[in-house]
Each structure stands twice: as C-alpha cells, then as structure tokens.
Design brief:
heterodimer, A: 578 residues, Hydantoin permease, two-stranded antiparallel ribbon, globular, B: 83 residues, mainly alpha
C-alpha cells in the first residue's frame, strides 16, 4: 500500500476514535464542562495532562531544535519538565483545595476584586492564544505534507475535529479524548526511535542507545562520532554547543519552568481530581508520561542529525550526488522546507557550516521528526503513525487551551462580571459559544502565523511566567500580599516582558512594528526575547512586595482563606459549596 | 504554635529540600557546572550533557513522588488530611 493511502487510513482511524469518545463523554453540567465533574482518576488524569501538555512543539519541533542546537536544546527538555516540580509543590494542591473552576477565579477571590480577575483573564487569553497558534500551524503542516492537501484545508479539518469534541464534551470529553491521544502520540514517537536506535547502536532503548557505541564496527560512541563529524564541517561540538551564553540558558530554562507552572490550561487539569492528595500524585503521573517522551527526544534529535549528515556525506569528503538524492529529499523540497543549491556546480551537495560554501541552503528544523523515519528508511506504516501522533499532540493541546480560553470568557467574564445571575444552563450554552468563537479565532491566526511553532509557544511561557505564576505563588505563600501589590506586580511583569519581546519581534509580531532598534538585539545581559519571562517574573515579585509593603494589608477574612488553603483538610466542603 | 502553623512549617522545610535538589540537578549540574562535569563520562555520555538532557528529568520525576509521599505522611501526622 502506498504511503498516502496508509496515512489516510491511520489518521482517519484515530479521528474516528476521538469522535467516538466525544459522543460517549458528553458534558451535561457546567461542572462536567469545566472540570470533568472532578471525578478523574489521578493516573488517567496524569495521562490526559501529559497529552494536553505535549504540543505540536514537543512532538514535531523539539527534537528538531535539539538536533540543531545540540547541548543547548536542553533548555526545552529541562524547562518543560522542571515546571511540574514547581506545580506539584507550590501551586496544584493548594489551588485544588480552594476548589474553583478557573485560575482567574482564584486570583479574583484571593485579591478580592473584579479588577484582579479581569487582569488575570487578559493575561490568560494572551498567553493561551499565542500558544494555540503554534498548534494550529502544526496541524496545517502535518496535513499539507502527508495528506497532500493545502495547508489551509488541513487547518480547517483540524478545527472541525476539535470543534466536535471540545464543544460537545468540554473538559470531560477533552480529558477522555486526551487519554486516547496520549497513547497514540507516545506510541508514534517511540516506535521510530526504537527502530533507529536499534539500527544505529544495536540497543533498542533510545535513552541508552544515545550513550552507546555505534553498531557500524567503528567502536566509536555515537555522541563522539557526531561531535567529530560536525566539528570537521565547522559546526559547533554537539555535546557542548551552548545556546548564546550560559546565563541565557539559565534564564531560558527558568522562564520555561515557571511559565509551565503558570499556564492556566495546565493548572486547570488539577481541578479535575477528587482530592488534594490526588492533585499531588497527578503531577507525578503527568511527569512520568511526559518524561517518557522527553527522555527519548534527545536521542531522536541526535540520531536524526547523524542520519541526515550520513545521507549527505556518506563517507568523509564524499558528498551526495544531486542526481542520487533519495525520494524523501525530493518530497520535502516540494514543501519548500528543504532546499539545496549546487553553488560550485560539481553535481554534489556539500553541507558545511561556512555560509559561502554550504549548499543545503534550507533545512527547516520542524521537519526533522516527520522526516526522520523516511531518512532512516523505516516502513511506511511507521511514517503514517508519526503523522497521526503529531496530529494527536497538536489536537490535544489545542483543545485544552481552547477550553481554558472558553471557560475564562463564560465563567470569569460573563458569570463573574457581567451577568452573575445567569442560570447554569445558559452558562453551559455560553461556554459552548465561547469555545466555538475561540476555535474560529485560533484558526484565523493559524492561517496567518506570526513565528515558527516553538517560537510562539516560548513566548506564551514568557507571559505566563511573568504574570500568572508570581500572582498565584504569592497568593498562597504570602499571607500579607494584598490586592495593590499583586496587581502592580502583574502589570509590571507583563508590560516589561511584552516591551522586550515586541521591541525585538515587532508589536504583535508585525515585523514593521519594531521599535528602538538602535538598542540592538538581546541587549539585556545577552538574554534572548523568548527567555525573558524569568526576568519579568523577578520584576513582578519585586514590584509586588514593595507596593504591598506601603499599602494596607489584606482584610482578615482573606488571610484566613490563605491559612485554609494551606491544609488539605476540609477539601470536600469547598466542592460542596458550588 | 497551632497545629496548622507547625504543619505549614514542616511542609515548607520539605519543599525547600526538594527545590534545592531540583535546582542542583538542572541549573547547577546541567548548566553552570556542565563544562567541568563533561570531563567525567558515563558510557558515551559526558556527565554535564547527561544531566542536562537526561538526568535532571529522571530526578524531577523522583522528586515529585517523593514529595507526595512525604507530605501525605505530614498530613497524617498533623491530622490535617482529608476524609
């Protein structure tokens, strides 16, 4: 069977599965819609959280980034896992104890006022929308390459599928679909990795294969061979290639960690479990399921780079002939994501670091995971599986984000601010409309994407890190933190982060709307804009504590509320209060 | 000191210990000291590189379960558990 037919069958089968689950798990109440009725088992919830978490960026882009950054790619690996440690210890159990539906609801109650809640909603929507664009782009790319549809058509199909199960099932439908999507994506990610690791090193476990000797009889360790090959061609040493500077890596990793802990669509998952105890273990299970992919990713990255180099330079000094380039090479050329130019006219393709001599003029990092099975000459069904996995990753994350946006609009803005007396039935209907509107908005932005997938995602982290994480953490750990302090802190954190990012990339990523270009790039201690969230968070904390010091402490009942969320006892009551 | 206050103090101590380890394996071993640690090898892995791309993640998983286990014990000890 040819690849395209197989891909249609595999992708079609997974889509049918998701829709089947959606029909089975329809939401009947607002509780079902927002928090899946608070009845999800922690292991299954961990699995759903992992799928929610691992996006198109994790599945499609991350290994590609690692393949080209080498050691520097570790910022994504540590950043996107280490945040769960913070969540498990600093936020999740306490927010679950409080027992509400959304993150802005907690912020509004803790900082006693609508203004705090509205500010939190705005931060949430900006962060979630930037993040959802990356997912939409991932869906479009996967469709256009493998099902040979137009990018736009792929996007519309993806939107349609999310629409069906997210609007119908809310959090309940999304959670159960995500469990299925996790199984699809982890299987799709590890199968090719096992094959490739086996082929290159003789060890089927990619995490061990990466630290093993080559199976080609050279007796060299895989990483040493890769280091040597890349060094010969003038690229940096794979295992030591620092991303910009050690300080930048430090700040980047920190931004991604606290951003992870501050992303509302992740925090919301911890509201779906029955008890505080379950919130703690959900974080552990989620991290187990995430770590399964994240410890394989470095192997996928390094091995993909190895295979790519070996294809273009089969033996030292001997280059791939233009006429003999493999089929996958030609397929990716058609998408414009891979491009060569025989500059010296010798009929061969040279791939070196020197820009003048390099003939691989374009190798898009995002294609590495999708092209990997083809480069390694794996059977067609593996390739079809990878496509279905990439789509599962993008769809599951998009659905979680859209739910966070929709519940903020219907629960925080509509019920919380504009129409407090709305009936549960109308609120459920409103949240479905909000979901549909969010899908349409995300689709529009997916058609006009501002930056490549991982780039936009990293920005969302900057915003979550500089606004939501500090507000939540201070709300739990500092009884004296008051409304004025928290509000000033959030405003300071988010404005300084936006200022830095937009100065580099243009206001709302419109390239013509850059400003203060004379300041140069990365002018703040060499920190790149995507890594700026941690700096924004420092500003947030500092401003908040100074302002709180000079203004009146929070009222007595708020301080009691803080004392109360610090202990698990009584969590049942909080649920019953709905 | 009230039971709740002592519980909170014990919890903070536990969190601090866990976060020190969290910081060590990622920021210190994986980033700040990665270069000197790379002189040590486990198999084909340089140690600093291993912490950055593998070791820190394994430690994170262990830490979250360790914390959940210890804090559940604290809940019982101070009588602030659910049910």
């Amino acid at each position: 069977m040819d690849l395209q037919t197989l891909t249609y069958i595999v992708v079609g089968a997974t889509f049918a599965l998701y829709i089947g689950i959606a029909i089975w798990a329809r939401a009947k109440t607002t509780g079902d819609f927002y928090v899946a009725g608070k009845g999800v088992n922690p292991v299954l919830n961990g699995m759903a959280t992992a799928a929610d978490w691992m996006s198109a960026a994790s599945f499609i882009s991350m290994a590609g980034l690692i393949a080209f950054y080498g050691y520097g790619g570790a910022v994504f690996l540590m950043g996107w896992t280490g945040g769960y440690v913070l969540l498990a210890m600093l936020l999740a159990p306490y927010l679950r104890k409080y027992g509400k539906y959304t993150v802005p609801e907690f912020i509004g109650d803790r900082y006693y006022g609508r203004s705090a809640r509205i500010l939190a909603v705005i931060c949430l929507i900006i962060a979630s929308i930037t993040y959802v664009i990356g997912q939409m782009k991932g869906i479009g790319v996967a469709f256009s390459r493998f099902l040979e549809t137009e990018y736009d058509t792929g996007l519309y199909i993806g939107m349609g599928i999310v629409f069906i199960y997210a609007v119908m099932g809310g959090m309940k439908g999304i959670t159960y679909t995500q469990i299925a999507q996790y199984c699809v994506l982890i299987f799709a990610y590890t199968v090719p990795a096992v094959f490739i690791s086996m082929h290159l090193t003789g060890n089927p476990i990619p995490q061990i294969g990466l630290g093993s000797k080559m199976a080609d009889g050279s007796g060299l360790f895989l990483l040493d061979k890769l280091d040597a090959t890349l060094k010969d061609l003038g690229f940096g040493t794979y295992t030591e290639n620092v991303r910009l500077s050690t300080f930048n890596m430090f700040v980047y990793t920190m931004s991604l960690m606290i951003g992870t802990a501050g992303l509302p669509h992740v925090i919301m998952r911890f509201f779906t479990v029955p008890r505080v105890k379950d919130a703690r273990s959900t974080a552990g299970w989620a991290l187990v399921f995430i770590a399964l992919l994240y410890t394989v990713a470095p192997a996928v990255g390094a091995m993909a780079r190895m295979n790519l180099m070996d294809t273009i330079q089969p033996a030292p000094g001997q280059w791939l002939e233009v006429e003999q380039r493999p089929q996958w090479f030609k397929n990716w050329e058609k998408t414009g994501l891979l491009k060569f130019e025989d500059k010296n006219g010798d009929g061969k393709i040279q791939y070196v670091a020197d820009k003048e001599k390099n003939e691989m003029v374009k190798v898009d990092r995002d294609i590495m995971v999708l092209a990997n099975p083809e480069i390694a000459k794996l059977p067609n069904w593996v390739i079809a599986l990878v496509v279905a996995g990439g789509l599962a990753a993008a769809l599951s994350t998009a659905a979680g984000l859209l739910l966070a946006i929709a519940s903020s609009i219907s629960h925080d803005l509509l019920k919380g601010v504009f129409a407090p007396n709305i009936s549960e039935k109308s609120e459920l209907l409103a949240s479905r409309f909000a979901m549909a509107a969010a899908i349409a908005a995300a689709g529009y932005l997916g058609l006009h994407p501002p930056d490549f997938a991982a780039g936009t995602v990293a920005l969302a982290f900057g915003l979550a890190a500089s606004s939501i994480f500090p507000a939540l953490m201070m709300g739990i750990f500092s009884k004296k933190m008051n409304k004025a302090g928290a509000m000033a802190g959030m405003l300071a954190g988010i404005s300084i982060t936006l200022f830095y990012v937009f100065q580099h990339k243009g206001i709302f990523f419109v390239a013509d709307w850059k400003y203060l270009q004379s300041w140069g790039t990365n002018w703040f201690l060499g920190v790149e804009p995507n890594a700026f969230g941690a700096i924004g968070a420092v500003f947030n904390f500092a401003v908040a504590f100074i302002v709180a010091k000079v203004t009146a402490p929070p009222p007595e009942h708020i301080q009691h509320m803080v004392e109360d969320i610090r202990v698990p006892i009584g969590a049942e009551d909080a649920v019953a209060a709905h | 000191m009230s039971t709740r206050a002592s519980y909170w103090k014990a919890n903070l101590r536990l969190v601090t210990i866990c976060l020190v380890i969290w910081f060590l394996v990622s920021f210190v071993f994986g980033i700040l000291l990665a270069e000197p640690l790379n002189a040590i090898r486990i198999g084909g892995y340089k140690l600093g590189f291993w912490f950055a791309q593998q070791g820190s993640i394994y430690t994170f998983v262990a830490l979250v379960f360790f914390y959940a286990w210890r804090v559940n014990k604290l809940d019982q000890k101070f009588g602030v558990h659910e049910d």
